[in-house]
Amino acid sequence: MGGFGIRAAFDIGRKSLRAQLAGLNVTGNNIANVNTKGYSRQEVTLASDFPMKTPDGVFGTGVKLEGVRRIRDKLVDRQLRNEIHTKSKNEALERVLNQIETTFNEPSETGLRVLISQFFDNFYNLANDPENSTTRFNLRESSKVLIEAFHRIDDQLQVLSDDIDFELRRSVERLNSLAAQVAELNTEIVSFEGASKGTANDLRDKRDIAIDEISEFIDIFPLEKPNGMVDVAAQAQTLVTSNFPVSLEVTTRSENGNLISEVIVTETGNVFEANNGKIFALVQARNEIIPHFRERLNILANELITKVNSIHRTGVGLQGTAMEIPKDNDFFTGNNAGNIDLSQAIKDDVNAIAAASRVDTILPNGEVITSGAPGDNKIALEIANLKQERVLSNGTESLLDFFNAIIGEVGIAAKEAQDNVRNEEQIITQFQNIRDSTSGVSLDEEFVNLIKFQRGFQTGARLITTIDDMFETLINM
Amino acid sequence: MRITDSFRFRVVTENLNRSRERLTDLQEQLASGKRINRPSDDPEASSNAMKLRSILETNFQFQENIQDGITQLTAQEEALNQVYEILAQVKEITLEGASDSVTIKSSLAQQLELILDNILEIANTKFNGKYIFGGTETLNKPFALNENVIKFDVDEPVVDYRGNLGKWNRQINENTTVEVNLNGKEVFDQAAGDGVNIFQMIYDIKRLMEQEDTKGVNAKIEDVDKGIEQILKSFLKVGTRKQLVLFNDDRFMTQNIQVRASMSNLEDTDFGEAFIAFKAEENALNSALSAGARVISPSLIDFLGPV
Prior knowledge:
The structure holds two protein chains of two kinds. By secondary structure, chain A is α+β, with helices and mostly antiparallel strands. Chain A has ten helices and 16 strands. Chain A has helices spanning 6-32, 74-104, 112-128, 133-195, 201-217, 277-312, 344-348, 378-384, 399-439, 443-475; strands spanning 42-48, 52-54, 57-59, 63-70, 221-224, 230-233, 238-241, 244-245, 248-255, 258-265, 315-316, 332-333, 341-342, 356-357, 359-362, 368-371.
């Protein structure tokens, strides 16, 4: 039969039904996944089928189903991931710095600043009334409270450091599982796409979600290879090569007497470098930020101990209580925020607190008698005046100035992290909107598609019944 | 731009979140009365406010020291005032004894004996548990009668000073300490120069009266005047110090008012402003809510019947 046959018309109808059905299918899938995280909208690609050349002219042969494609803008993906790791870095930093801020608990009427101030004020009170045991008891109590505050802050910073270690380990575990996921999906995608025509849309969505999440932890450069696999590389090392994930772990080593936590590659033992993302932030907080503030606090405590002791040593306690000047006539013991304490002599007896300067009388037999006057307040006054004295930072800051500077530093760092997080949130929202605008599902649109494909199907079916009628007419002729 | 459902939902949720975040922040400012609740709220202002608070606290302690100083100086002033009044009496008695009417001299001597006891008691004044004229030897009586002189008339000073020359210093500002005591030596016992030993002087006059040595008593009038002058000088010294201390207290009170005002500017919520901002934000939230409700709900589905 030459020319255009009735069977060809049947074929057009059949292909039409198949195409509209596929469209409905994809629309249904889109609707179902409207709230699925990371889902990219899909679209059937329809094309007119190869035309048929007949003596009567060239006729179309209906519709051809070319495949289902995922609508995704890879450029936006890359930009978004760049922002995601910056945001999660700043989020982690913000959280740590806020906790440090809370630990210092300033401005407040019960924080370390007030306690240091009260400690010295109690020395003034002692100077005002050196014979009175109440002023001595008050001074000892306020010293104890100050010491406890130093211990508490030091402990809390240690706990914070331990918490970060724990979170770091958890993050690395998650990162390992994500890397394994990407490697596995690489394998699946290649085998899937090799076996059938078209792309493995949903698997690719899954892989993109995993890579998005990886970029929360570290800064990465994913690279899709021609075979469809994605290699994920970080700064210096790769995380996933084709279907091989790298396994990471956290180790702790000692550096200059401090314990440092590091992320290393299990196989090689090399340090896994990250310049951004949550893991970078946690390592930085754990190894640099917290030790920095602990160090500053230790300097403060040590200076307080040294300066108070150096003056106290030259004085004598209240006479009349069988005063025997201990060899180590110190006020404090210890040398940092963690071990600062009251000397045993003062713990035992408040009269061991030296308010008076010491007078050494040498007896004719060479014996030295040390004494002091009960109303003498020289030593108490000297210690009290340490409050104003610029003893730190090369003589530019008093103890309180130094402490205020620590608080200022925490505040500025916390504010910076907060501001960065706010900024990143806005940028990310923009990119997410752009991504959504391309890849997201619009229910209105899908609803229109639903009707479109339904109508297409109905009309396609009508075509077939019409041709069927025509056949019957032919047969009955 | 293609507006998708998750896009619409995100915009609505984020607007609401932002609005609620700002409202919570304003609410905290209004409730606490503080614009700064943690250093990161405004690191610079918070750091300045902390410095100001330290100034206030330090001033407060200086004012405590000042108060204590005033209390001590006042106690000394009162004691000196009593001594002055007694010495005026001594002068009257001495003048009386210097005249030739002999008969009452023994009774004058008796009066002087009582006065000596009296003045010794004042010299041993104890205030707040401290002997105020003992220097820093505050826990033992600074002056003691030499019994040997009274009983056997040996040639020794009639009263021993057992205190020292120690100073009670009070820190009244960052750079200044003020002595808030006069030791017993300088008040009662300035043997050298223009000064006199007041106890010895009274005792000597008493002895001269007992011996009816009118000439000798007459010669002592000058000493009594010197003694009075000595007490007045001490009185003046205490007064000047009190003045200086009070001046510092005034200065701190004025400074504190200024510091409090600056602190309030830095830290405190401007209620008018915060409340207006709160109201505005509340309106914004309400608008965001009602707009959100309208944006989210309509869909093509609402307008097409079953197909």
